[in-house]
Amino acid sequence: MSFAGKVVVITGVGREGQIGEALASSFCEVGARVAAVDVSREHVVARAAALTDAGFDARAFPCDLTDPAQTAALRMDLETSYRRVDVLVHAAGGFAMSGVVAESDPAVWNRMFAINLTSAYMATRALVPLLRIGGGAILYFGSTAVVDGGQSAGMAAYAAAKSGVLTLMRTVAQEESGHGIRSNAIAPVAVRTTANVESMGSDARYVSREEVAAVARFLCSNDAARITGQVIVMT
Questions:
Q1: What is the Cα–Cα distance from 114 to 66, expressed in whole angstroms?
Q2: Quick one: 148 exposed, middle or buried, by C-beta within 10 A (0-12, 13-18, 19+)?
Q3: Alpha-carbon dihedral of residues 199, 203, 205, 210, nearest 10 degrees?
Q4: Burial degree of 35 (CB within 10 A; 0-12, 13-18, 19+)
Q5: For residues 161, 166, 171 and 172, what is the CA-based torsion angle, rounded to 10 degrees?
Q6: Is 106 exposed, middle or buried (0-12, 13-18, 19+ CB in 10 A)?
Q7: Any idea what DSSP says for residue 145?
Q8: Is CB count within 10 Å lower at the N or C end of the chain?
Q9: 122, 71 in Cβ contact below 8 A?
Q10: Secondary structure letter of residue 15 according to DSSP
Q11: pLDDT tens-digit readout, 45-82
């Protein structure tokens, strides 16, 4: 499964030990030219530098994907640097419990929508024109909380935002098929990241970062050329 020469933009490549780091390493290992994006300049520069030091082709692009001006600037920087984009993996986001709806904090609701759904929308809106140049793939991240039978009690803000991400994914799959762009999503249970283990303990039910990255590579590869508009649940 080669991505030799392909430009892969991955958002959420920030803190060490998180899913974005594993995704960036995984795509680099199969030849991709990785554009790493994160709101933290310090963290994304460090992750890209580690990949470069290992001999891979990676560059850092600090950007707040909830900010229209910064997202527009990101598109211009990517166009200048690469001329096109072949793959967008939108892993940026975050989780917080919002509590029972009747007693929940509107600030948590707004933040969950901003970092999960607004960031997905802004990244898509900015980069689809670059994906249309040669066609390609977009991959989003949902959650098992929002698939059939999922449990969302106490986390309505996060679940509602992730439901919106899946609707965005399906919409893009319909709208962009004529431009050769596929759009899919992964909906994992908790991923074994440093932050999740610290907050949930080591015995919780997890999928590994490497397992998620392997599915991401497949869905963005030519092997999945006939797959679009789908949610792959990982339990």
A1: 6
A2: exposed
A3: 80
A4: buried
A5: 100
A6: exposed
A7: G
A8: C
A9: yes
A10: S
A11: 999 999 999 999 999 999 999 999 999 999 999 999 99
